[in-house]
Every structure is written in C-alpha cells, then in structure tokens.
Design goal:
The chain is built from 4 helices and 3 strands, in the order H-H-E-H-E-H-E. It is α/β, with parallel strands linked by helices. Strands 2-1-3 form a 3-stranded parallel beta sheet, with helices on both faces. It is flat, with a radius of gyration of 27 Å.
C-alpha cells in the first residue's frame, strides 16, 4: 500500500514539473514572438521638425524668460536639431497650458510645456478642472526648488494620505 502512494505521489509530482516546464516554454515562445516596436532614430524623427514649448504664463514673466532661454539651447542637444518654438498659452494660472499638453497636444514628443509648480498637485487640492490631468503627461522638471508643506494641529486632515506631504 505504501509503495502505491509513493508511486502515485511521484507520478503527480513529475506531471506537475512537466506541466510547469511546458508552461515556461510556452511563455518563452510567446514572449520571443512579440518583437519590440521598432521606431525611427531620434535624429531622423526630429530632423526638420519644430519642437513647441507651450508657456503657461504671459510674455515677460519668469516662466516665459526661463522657457525662452531653454528654447535657445534645447534644439542643439536633441538629435536632429529641431527648431524650438516658444508659444505662450495664458489662462487659469497655467492650468490651460497643462490641460492642453495633457489632452490636445500630440503625444509624439514635439510639444513640451512649462507651467506652475502647483499644477501637478492641484487634483489633490480639489481644484476645478485639474482633475482631468493624467500623471503621465506631467513628468520632469528643469529646476527643483525646495518645497515643503506644513499643517497646524487643528486641521481636519491628519494623515499623509489626506495631505500633499
């Protein structure tokens, strides 16, 4: 009786290993058949194109000066040397520019934007209109000034999940 149990257990363990090996081989073949999407080289893509910098504030301000300084030098550091064109899109404390980048602008790398540092956290503060911003479109910063947040003891939000910290 004991021999039969060992034989059955051994057979089922062997079957499990064979099944696991077959699944692993199948996964390998499926993964190897799905070739990566090859795209053209960045130099070929940007050559002869315009790279637009959407500026969320009016002409003459700090964000405008910063973006225009960036526009002068940025094209030299991108393969294909695109022409960098600054364009102002004033409205709602630069929320208009951020929403344009998120919803209307082409997602091919030909449009970047500069807007207020508060824009990425506006959805946390229940700011009207900012709720439609997606996290993927608001990435990166050319500068990182020190930022802090504080709250008084009597504030209603007492945990990190309820604050922007």
């Amino acid at each position: 009786m004991r021999t039969n149990c060992v034989t059955i257990c051994h057979r089922s363990a062997t079957a499990i290993w064979k099944l696991a090996a077959a699944v692993a081989v199948a996964i390998f073949f499926v993964a190897s058949m799905s070739a990566p999407a090859w795209s053209q080289a960045p130099a070929d893509f940007y050559k002869g194109k315009n790279l637009n910098i959407v500026i969320g504030y009016s002409v003459g301000g700090g964000y405008d000066a910063y973006a225009r300084l960036l526009a002068v030098h940025l094209g030299k550091h991108i393969p294909g040397n695109p022409t960098v064109v600054p364009q102002n899109m004033v409205g709602a404390g630069s929320l208009k520019a951020a929403l344009y980048l998120d919803t209307v602008a082409p997602k091919d790398g030909t449009v970047i934007a500069t807007f207020g540092r508060n824009i990425p956290i506006d959805p946390l503060m229940d700011t009207t209109g900012a709720a439609s911003l997606t996290a993927g479109s608001l990435t990166g910063s050319a500068a990182s000034p020190p930022t802090s947040a504080s709250a008084f003891r009597g504030t209603p939000r007492r945990s990190r999940s309820g604050t922007i910290c």
